[in-house]
Amino acid sequence: MARKVSTTRRASITALAWAVGLLIFFPILWTVLTGFKTEGDAYAIPPKFLFFSWTLENYTEVQQRSDYLAHALNSILLSVGSNIVGLIIAVPAAWAMAFSPTKRTKDLLMWMLSTKMMPSAGVFMAIYFLFQEFHLLDNRTGVGFVLMMSNLPILVWMLYTYFKEIPVDILEAARMDGATLFEEIVYVLTPMAIPGIASTMLLSIILSWNEAFWTLNLTTFNAAPLTYLIAQFSSPEGTFWAKLSAASTLAIAPILILGWFSQKQLVRGLTFGAVK
Amino acid sequence: MATQQTATAARLLVAPSVILLFLWMVVPLAMTLYFSTLYFNLLDADNMRFIGLQNYKDFLSDPDFIGALVNTLIIVVWVLVISVGGGILVALLMDQPIFGQNIVRLFVIAPFFVMPTVSALVWKNMLMNPVSGLFAWISNSLGLPVVDWFTNWPMTAVVIIVSWQWLPFASLILLTALQSLDEEQKEAAQLDGAGAFSYFFYIVVPHISRAVTVVILIETIFLLNVFAEIRVTTNGGPSTTNLPFRIFELATNANDVGGAAAGGVVAVVLANIVAIFLMRMIGKNLEA
Question: What CATH number is associated with residue A233?
């Protein structure tokens, strides 16, 4: 920011930017606030912004009525579990493609990415029947597998772009210094690869957490994550705004915080390295 | 490094991913293609038989299909216009020297992390409800007529909700692209006396056009698949049913597996048309 800008101009631009930012953020803020209201206050006209009797009863009730914790546990197991398995498969692949590329590596990467373009609804029936056949409906392993497969191309891609940035010279230097393969992996490669793997995992967890086609259609009870819990509030008679808000706040808070930490990686991951 | 041994090892390391993704792609697709040639109704499963391309004829000539296709396009086009147009404006604003830029950035990016079922229900109820919703109160306070969004303007409401989810994505990526604009180039333009408009059209636009293309293509892939937002707000209906939702309806409400599969193949073909362009963009970058 080397340009000289007058203070008034800077102040007015700042005010405008904050206004726009708050406007975009407002629905989330409103949800969080409504979660602390009584149902009566939630429907009040004129709306109560800050001066209402703050209460935590929605949170306890969401837990009692719709078992929030069980759904949250499913969300965690599905997103984290599918990603750990996904990484075990993706890390070696990305590693091999980054460090000993062949003529076909690029085509292979492009092909992997193309599998991500398949519309979920397009193959809905096929997956549903396969799941029925193998008794995987409403089963965590089954849904986790689908989430893992739909994120695998992104995992391989992101890891590949990170691994590509590790200079090969450093490996050779380590070898010249007499490092064994084991030492090379533990002391040289791993420290350089960990940040990339961590960012990849973060983005992929966010995507799995919010996935709402397969989780809505392949789960009903045992494996149902938070996306499913929230969808339950869509029936007209079941709409209690304060409880919906409390449940929503709990459902988005962890991922919002993770997301805020991973903004930079997000750009790279979601554009498959096309914008950095 | 590329000795015979390492090449074999590399192949072994890549194999699990390739095999899994290959099966993930081929098996469901082959099954879908197969189902699409069958008369296959779950309530009449004994009569399952080969009927060639009849499902495609039925699906494509069904007015509901045309409606669903039109709705799909409405969602894709309008959300793209709003999110990319708005995204450029937000990115330009955020690229200015502002106090607390990092915090504003957090506000702007936040909606992207909200799960689709949450954003749809929060907007539908607490904001757009015609009686107790916040928008109704604002309209009333300003003396304007209250809009009953989901009764009279269901598609507009869906477009607004989906745009809110994707505006942050466009803003964040375009901001990243803007920030990579060379500082010297900015100063040179200023020294040469470039006004705001010529600065925008001759410096900014060429610089971010690539990022805009990438945003459009990636959003299109996701927007063709919008499902949860429709499921929890209108649950279908002629004015908001898009292609994924139509396929879902055929499969679950009409039990018409053959028809749903034919619809699925159509959806796959449409997605592929977009995908080809996207892949070219990304492929070009891969060489650099």
Answer: 1.10.3720.10
pLDDT digits (tens, 9 = 90+) for B230-281: 999 999 888 999 999 999 999 888 889 999 999 999 999 988 888 888 778 7
Number of structural domains chain B divides into: 1
pLDDT tens by residue, B202-230: 888 888 888 898 888 889 888 999 999 99
Q: A interface mutation test: which of B21, B59, B281 has the most A CBs within 10 A?
A: B21
Q: Report yes or no on B29 lying in a domain.
A: no
Judge: B121–A248 Cβ closer than 8 Å, yes or no: yes
ipTM value: 0.89
Domain limits for position B124: 62-287
CA angle A85, A91, A97 (to 5 degrees): 140
Separation between Cα atoms, residue B92 and residue B179, nearest integer Å: 10
φ/ψ (deg, to 5) at B49: -155, 165
Average pLDDT over residues B72-97: 94
Among chain A residues, the shortest Cα distance to B279 is held by A110
- For A258-268, the pLDDT digits (tens) are 888 887 777 77
Query: Is A189 within a domain?
Result: yes
Question: For residue A250, which residues of chain B lie inside 8 Å, CB to CB?
Answer: none
Same domain, A50 and A162: no
Q: Which domain holds residue A25?
A: 7-57
pTM score: 0.90
**Two tokens, residue A143:** 């849904």
Q: Which of A89, A209, A230 sits opposite B121 (nearest CB)?
A: A230
Half-sphere exposure of A242 (CA within 13 A, CB side): 21
Contact between B190 and A3 using a beta-carbon 8 Å cutoff: yes
